[in-house]
Specification:
The protein is α+β, with helices and mostly antiparallel strands and 391 residues long. Helices cover 36% and strands 15% of the residues. The strands form five sheets. A five-stranded antiparallel beta sheet has the order 4-3-14-13-12, sandwiched between helices. The protein has a three-stranded antiparallel beta sheet with strand order 5-9-6.
Length: 391
């Protein structure tokens, strides 16, 4: 089999791309991922990790490092499932919002109150759907509602009633609180609960059978555990790590999804194929472009739901400006670069046994840069070989 190496010049109608065997690329990537991730396990950045690298045609290489838990446990593999944390925002809620906007059922510049009249408070009438998705609504980042109450209905009311801290459209503050009403818009407009909507319109059609809220107990042995939480009975496994999502019943727009590396690869392939995977179309290419374009550079590098490379975040230093991605608090991340026909999924449980472990940040950057460096090196070697060694 041959793998056409990605490069922006080829996508723009430049010279034919050099080809090398997929085995050569796979070995080089696997060796690099092994060095980076095994070192991170030894450094106690996380007990285990599963990395998937691929392009529009599928998975190029996977690597599982460490084990699912610090206690004796299996090595991470394809069936392993992970608490996605805030990847829920882009894999779940943003996917649904893209479809509803495309269908004309939601307008990005409409006030949130058009869809949620009960979302009231000073200046909330001025907040648009676009501002929820770009985290410029004026809402605060976070409130520990679970320290006030563990009643799901009460937490839902507190999240909906949270007052703005700034005027809409004047500052960027990444907000779990803002993602919550965005999910409620999906439910109100579609008439379906968020988990059911996503299963029917996104995950089911894409064959993402391991992607779900509230996984059943039968899947528990496959799921990477997260934090030890005495209030919730000890180490969490198969129960969402985020406390607000947990007490909301495990289903929210800001957190709650579990998934596998294989499923997220299918999701990334869909994006790299312009919104389709095989015969299944989830969204149009134009919708992807609209949702993955920076909205207001004066405020942030954010697109709609998605984050963009900025030279300091988890994209590393070598992604193209077309790339987009996101991270999750539990130690997950996904980056997709259409200009380079590349995706990188990194799944870890860095919060096992405690969220105080903050070593994941540099590892994410090192993985992204290492993958890009290997692909560039192999591509350059192939280019030299195709010209007979001349320059």
């Amino acid at each position: 089999a041959l793998l056409t190496l990605p490069h922006p010049a080829y996508a723009q109608g430049g010279p034919s791309a050099p080809t090398v065997s997929s085995a050569t690329v796979g070995r080089a990537l696997s060796d690099t991922l092994r060095l980076v991730l095994d070192a991170a396990v030894r450094d106690h950045a996380f007990p285990g990790a599963y990395a998937v690298v691929g392009n529009h045609a599928g998975i190029v290489v996977v690597y599982g490092a460490g084990h699912l838990d610090w206690d004796p446990s299996p090595r991470p593999d394809a069936p392993a499932m992970w608490d996605l944390a805030s990847l829920t925002k882009v894999v779940g809620m943003t996917s649904a919002m893209m479809q509803l906007v495309e269908q004309g059922k939601v307008s990005l510049d409409a006030p949130v109150q058009r869809y949620l009249p009960e979302w009231t408070g000073p200046h909330k009438a001025e907040v648009t759907v676009r501002e929820l998705l770009t985290h410029t609504s004026g809402l605060p980042a976070f409130r520990a509602y679970d320290r006030i109450t563990t009643n799901g209905d009460s937490i839902a009311k507190l999240m909906m009633a949270e007052p703005l801290e700034a005027l809409p459209g004047t500052r960027f503050v990444y907000s779990d609180i803002g993602a919550y009403p965005a999910g409620k818009i999906v439910e109100r407009v579609s008439g379906e609960r968020l988990d059911r909507y996503l299963a029917a319109h996104v995950f089911g059609p894409l064959g993402m059978h391991d992607t779900m809220y509230n996984p059943p107990d039968s899947l528990r042995p496959r799921i990477a555990p997260t934090e030890v939480d005495p209030r919730r009975g000890g180490k969490l496994r198969g129960k969402v790590h985020d406390e607000r999502a947990y007490y909301l019943g495990g289903i929210s727009a800001h957190a709650g999804l579990f998934s596998s590396g294989y499923d997220l690869a299918r999701f990334a392939e869909m994006y790299l194929n312009g919104g389709a995977l095989g015969p299944v179309r989830v969204v149009r290419r134009q919708t992807i472009i609209a949702f993955t374009t920076v909205q207001d550079r004066a405020l942030s590098n954010r697109a709609l739901g998605w984050e963009k490379p900025n030279g300091t975040n988890s994209a590393g230093h070598l992604m193209s400006p077309a790339a987009f991605g996101h991270t999750g608090f539990t130690g997950t991340s996904i980056w997709i670069d259409p200009a380079q026909d590349l995706f990188i999924v990194l799944l870890t449980n860095r919060v096992d046994p405690t969220r105080a472990n903050s070593k994941i940040g540099p590892v994410r950057i090192e993985v992204a840069d290492a993958v890009e460096t290997v692909l560039d090196r192999v591509e350059r070697a192939a280019a030299v070989q195709s010209t007979g060694g001349s320059h």
